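Course assignment 3, question 2. Fill in each field.
Student: A.L.
Task: Predict the tertiary structure for the chain below.
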Amino acid sequence: MTSRLRRLLASIAGLPQWVQAWLVVLVGTNLASLAFLDTNVGLWTAAAIVVVGTLNLPMMVIQGGLTRLLSLPHFVWFPLIVLLYGQLHGTNALPAGSPVRIFALAVLIVNGISLLFDVLEVYRWFRGERELLGLDRPEPVSRRA
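Answer field:
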């Protein structure tokens, strides 16, 4: 295992437990879209998580850990939330109590909460807080080999 991959795993393991639990909820909720691929809600949620993963996975490996910059690709959820809101409250709203409506509401709530954190984290990254998260000794990304 390379040192970069070891650092990545240590970064994830070093996050506070509530953050690790939140990541499980966030990823799990979005991956549940696979059960709804025959609906607009499932299709667009799956597309959004593919975009986020496609951008974040290489960044995590290249950086050798988690940084606040990983919040930036989550901004793709802003248009998803608009779409979900329309599915919940538009003229052709999803039927009350339907599984896809419950899923849409869950994604809207979870991704909405995530975006509150993400805006702050991206702001902090642009202000210079670029350390690898979860490590005992913060290691700036720009100083690693």
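Instructor remarks: Residues 3-143 form one domain. The chain has a mean pLDDT of 92.
Grade: pending
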